[in-house]
Amino acid sequence: MEKQSEGITYRKANDRMEIVRYRNWTKSYAPHTHTSHLTLGYVEEGKIRLIVNDQSRICEKGDSFRIPPDTLHEINAVDGKPYSMIVLCILTEPEKTDMDLQEIRTALLEQPENLYLIQEMAKDAHISPYYMIRRFRKAFGLTPHQFQIQCRVRKAQKLLEEEKSISRVTYDAGFSDQSHLDRCFHKLVGLTPAQYRDAAREESQQSAGKNLANK
Fold it and tell me: Total domain count for the chain?
């Protein structure tokens, strides 16, 4: 599946691999993780500032980079100048960790829209809320709240690909209102929900046309 909009192309090679290509892109991405995904990147033009676990480096044309699964990182345009790069995200087997934390992580992944207070998580993990936050961030790169918001955005992407209305996506993904969805979605994906949905629709139509032509 391939979705194109504003210089970004998303292409799912299969259920375990996604290719993202940025062309003359100037947007930066706030700290986030790729859950159970190994990320491999190659800068085609320009340069980016890559920050992984608070370690910063400049990647220029011809440079490649590797980001392990569940690792906190951010990508910034340098001096606001455009860059082009290709990124490969590969699904991996999750590393074994504390069983209680793993169950909480799974609950947030599968049903991110549900209200799951930190006090409830701490009780389920048999530790205090303070240590719950510290241990979760150490294991998965984000606090439980940050991780849940990220999972809600990922669910919103899937719902938009199914051509659900934005108002329905807002509710089903667990956002308080559409402006909340817009802010979180754009921060993580680099597109608005409407732009992402339109790109998904265009790709779906193109794929349907190619399938008919091949028959």
Answer: 2
Query: What tens digit of pLDDT does each residue of 109-120 get?
Result: 999 999 999 999
Instruction: Select from 55, 72, 91 the last residue of a domain.
Output: 91
Specify the DSSP element, H or E, that contains 38: strand 37-45
Residues forming beta bridges with residue 59, ordered by sequence position: 48
Structure tokens at 194: 């409407």
Q: Which two tokens stand for residue 176?
A: 């308080």
Question: Residue 6: which domain range?
Answer: 2-91
Mapped onto helix, strand or coil, the DSSP state of residue 84 is strand
One domain for residues 22 and 86 = yes
Contact 155, 172 (CB under 8 A): yes
* Tokens, residue 59: 């990647």
Question: Do 123 and 175 fall into the same domain?
Answer: yes
Residue tagged 């329905």 (tokens): 168
pLDDT of residue 146: 96
For residue range 140-199, what is the model confidence (pLDDT) as tens digits? 999 999 999 999 999 999 999 898 999 999 999 999 999 999 999 999 998 899 988 887
pTM of the model: 0.84
> How far, CA to CA in Å, does 109 sit from each of 43, 148, 206?
30, 7, 31
